[in-house]
Esterase
Amino acid sequence: MACGEAGRSPDKGMDMRKTFAVCAAFVASAIGTHAVHAEQFRVELSAPAAEDSGYEGRLILIIASDDTREPRFQVEASYDGAQVFGLPVTDFRKGQARTIGTSVPGYPGRKLTDVPAGTYTVQAVLHKYDSFRLGNGKVVKLPAARGAGQNWRKEPGNLISKPIKVDFDPKRAGEIKLALTDVLSPIEEPKDTEFVRHFKFKSDRLSKFWGRDVYIRGHVLVPKDFDKHPEARYPLAVFHGHFPDDFGGFRTTPPDADIKCEPSKRFSNEPCYNRTEQQEAYDFYKQWVSPDFPRMLIVEIDHSNPYYDDSYAVNSANIGPYGDAITYDFIPALEKQFRGIGEGWSRFLYGGSTGGWEALAVQVFYPDQYNGAFAACPDPIDFRQVMVTNIYDDKNAYWREGAFGRVAKPGKRDYLGHVSLTIEDENRLELVLGDKTRSGGQWDIWEAVYSPMGADGYPQRIWDKATGVIDPAVAAHWRENYDLRHILERDWQKLAPKLQGKIHIYVGDMDNFYLNNAVYLMEDFLKKAQPAYGGEITYGDRAEHCWNGDPSLPNSISRLRYNSMYVPKILKRIEAAAPKGADLKSWRYK
């Protein structure tokens, strides 16, 4: 494949024997081994020209040893994931070149020369950014939410190359070429069915913040015979969690007869976990339409945004007033369309992990608007244990340091305590995938939600992404605005009457991400708080992420039963808190 003018690197002073070159041309590459030894890759980008100016975004190059699936789907914070390199690009036009050199950080290998000689499948992706003129006048360049939940591997409009198989040797001269030829297609919005309806809401608050139209979407599970009972008004359960492309965990047919079994990497008791998931979804449908199941609404919310697959459902200096937009605008509008009761006693929150934090945070920040939060395996709810880091007292997020040595802080474990990655691993990968908090990763979204906005319009770093050194001023901002245990303890006398009986937390004591640590600290406060909080906190023995509070089931099943697990608890809260004259009958039809 001839590169011609497109092959000229703009970094003329760089040692081209140790670089990846990225250029634009009309070249398509098919899978097939290129029997050439090389120490550099030239990735030719053959995408259409941008509408008004050159492309801006993150250029990502992936090298994979596994040829059974595309390299872009193998990037993960893991010692056995694909190798990845990333570079910011601006005004990137067809026919130009960009170069990734040895100074560009990679993961797991830190630089190109760390990649051992071998046969690999390689692919390039351009994760496209848009310009946002915020309501405060600042201009930021971020990946717009385009329907894939901020998944750069799938986001419509991103540019990708066809994977090719190559022989690579960093010690021998030569080059291997790729071509970014394909533009990822738009994703169709889901269609309404008998039980799942869809709601699209334009938020004036968020549109003002972002300087463009912003929508929140709801995937609503409606009860049996919803259209036959126009007189009924329903309680609402908000199932918080990561980006939903539709309502999940619900299907009206038995598992596929010809399903190809996929064993769970996480649960050794599940040799055909995809079938188990389908069976659980079908069992929930049968329960949903059964005569004794309460008729109610459940909504999963798509509030994906330029930083992540969801907003964390609170107001944020960097992401905008999502808390107010969801609670004061979106929820009432949804209840109006789907005949919700529309009062605080009839609304409930639950979810796991990110959704667990959101459920609890929303209940704390909007105590009168909801009647109970059931938070499973919540993201850190006390920042003295952000997984394993006390951001107030520790100096470094990556290391425990002594006078003569240091040890890495763990980031993930299994139920036996075996560690598979470190905190630094995850953060290094995020830095490769995007600077300025733009990776779309877990640590970056905490930073985007919790941190103040910097002078450049991007979130202030909680710690240096390369070294792990913590900024105490940013940590103090986190504490006063988003540390849920601190906020509850600080404001308990005011909040306690509003939260009586509404806080319920469930977590495995071997949570993979050490999320039980912060729950212990929350429990220490709540069990001595006066007046008493009146809720529950329970732990699953050797249970991992994301145990839902049911000790009778294995973790592999309990994590699939959020929608049915909390219904009895919701009914109990309704009986305890519904005001005199409340509608307790119209939604209990058979």
